[in-house]
Design a protein that fits this description.
single chain, 19 helices
Amino acid sequence: MNQRHIQMIALAGTLGTGLFLASGKAIMYAGPAGALIAYLLVGSIVWAMIQSLAEMMCYAPISGGYIHYTSRFLHPSAGFAIGWMQWYSGIISLPIEIVSASVIIGFWDTDPVTGDVPRSHMIAYITSLGILCSAINYFGARWFGEAEFVFAVIKITLIIGLIIAGVVVDLGGSPTHDRIGFRYWNIPGPFAEYPVSGDIGKFTGWFTTLLQAAFSFSGVESLAMACAEVKNPVPNIKKASRLLFYRILIFYILGILVVGMLVPSNDTHLLKPTGNGAATSPFVIAFNRAGIKALPSIINAGILSSAFSAADSVLYSTSRMLYGLSVRGQAPEIFCKTLKNGLPLFALMMSNLFILLAYMSLSDGAQTVLNWLSNLTSIATFICWGTICVAFLRYKAACESQGINRKDPRLFHNFLQPFPAYWAIFWCCVVVLFNGYQVFIHGMWNVSDFLIAYINIPIVAALFIGHWIFTGHKRFPRADEIDMHSNIPPLTSIDEEKPRSGVRRFIKWFF
């Protein structure tokens, strides 16, 4: 894969349905100001995590990504626990994304009597999308990179168009010529109350949106899973890591700001489920309020590309996770076998099998179980981000102890470290510990919600302790004992031809 592929893999994994659909829930729960603050805070957490991950990726651009870094720099049992947690999170998310894409197609194919997608049509959509998603991955990394590049271009074009159209509508350029401005920041107000009233409700509404915003950014760490399959990995990863966050920040922050200006937090359409395509998008709600009726199908097409891209990325990353675990002896040996082009065939086949769970959505009882499993895996993102930053702190200590120059200009280095890592660790701990706060509010206790919020903690602990016991109670290595050399490619300087024209320089900077 090339520079443009690696950039778009990370971008396509984050810019998706979280912004096009779920941003409406953020406005409803926290109000326009609360949602904006939440997205800004989560953006800073993601930036801090990427700064930590990028430094390790540039020093060791090898297969396994952050799972390998956790095993090498922190503890093998920690890598085992994080690796299997992320793998099971991915293989559960895979059928959910396929089902989401199928439902989105149903926006154009609903039964006029029942208002639902015919069952036979859903089977056809799930089967077709599953085959297409599998085929892209079986063709290898280059085909996957090209597909993700195309999907990302579609989504970037869509969000830029929506932001521009939203600003035009806000300034009175709609058919109604209603100049909205910041009207909805005054009435109903900048902050909403959820799930209780008063100032406490405003705070808990903001915290709920903080969780939603973080879910929207999840997947950006998948950049590390592809770093071993990129041409000239170090300079390409450096560029991707430096530019990726700013582009996402612009899209997300401007997107949530525009939504908060166009849609009031008490709009009844925001109460609808977010799984029914473009009709529930806050952008569609805003443009319908402004009298613009032609955009829902265009937006739905963009949302469809987002959902399918997410499934494609999940299948790619889970197969590489399983391969990386197998290479380190933490999964059956068969999963580390590859084809001549480096494709981990058996790891991909194993992850691919779980697409079949998408057919569970055709049964009401099984759909409930599938949704429960999907919610169960959500908090794994924060555990992963926090662990990446802890592994970075150990990497930093090892470099200092063994005389390795982290400031080498050929590597990636952030002069603010370790403070960004501490910042991300702190907020990840806050999210993990308090994400289930609603069950502790008087009268809102629910056993199922409690388990969904906190079951990942004992699961990760059990994986860590089980592996630690099975492998002989290995202690955490001291900084001077961490292996900083084996199987790490030597650092070399790469002279890249500089483009001469301004247009070519912009294209090289952007991609």
